[in-house]
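Changelog note: in this version the structure field was regenerated for every chain. One regenerated record is shown below for reference.
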Amino acid sequence: MISCGNLSRVFIILGVFLTTVYTQDVCVKKGPCTCEFPNGTGIDLTPSAKSPYFSTQIYKLENNGTRLALSTFYYHPCNDVVLPINTSAASFTTCKDSLALCWYISFMDLLNTTKDTFKKDGGNYQYLGTSNSSDFTADGKSIIYPNVPSSTVVMLICATTEDQLEVYSLADQSRIVLAFYSKEACLKQIEEPGRSLGSTLLIIFFSFVILYLVLGICTKKFLMGATGLEVIPNLAFWSDLPNLVKDGWAFAINGFKLPNRGPGPVTSPDPNSYDSI
């Protein structure tokens, strides 16, 4: 029989275990090519999105050297794009729409064993994934593109070279592994989009207005004994504010020009002035 003390120990151990598991650093996906750790660092491939797409090729000899398999991979890390490829000659294609990953595979069969003459077929284009369906691994070092029942893994490798796509493994065609070399794949501080200057100025302005009204109302009510609308500081100004805004708007529409003044009323000179002499 389990005692209350032992049961409490079990719950404590379970709580510590769950807390440890759920507080581990996980790179949470913020976008198709961005993930962030709890400490604010993460991976951001957004600068790599300036390129139309990345591609890489790999050859493989099959059938005892009588067949050459050519694989070409097209990849965009941040957006789904329509690839500038000619699918008319292909025997099969699923890469017509916007996507992030496409695999073109064609075969060249040896025609004559005495000469290196190959006959190339039209090949086919195979869809591998889109940016919306992708997800980062917990450590942020790879992006997985599911294409049930298969999937493609793009390893993100921090490098000082120009952005480059390479084939890492084709051993299991149900789980192709590519490698994307980029300086953007290095761990960095993720900058959250900040508040604009205009928004900041508006917040400061309205904060001062509210502070001014609160202090003014308190001063007039408790120190000067004002009641009703009289507690509003500078009541005449606030009452005339709509007219001032109207005049300012009319002044702006008029090209910031003062309205023409008409002739004033005719008045007789002051009998005691110099002009009356």
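Spot check on this record: DSSP finds three helices and 15 strands in the chain. The chain has two domains: 28-189, 197-253.
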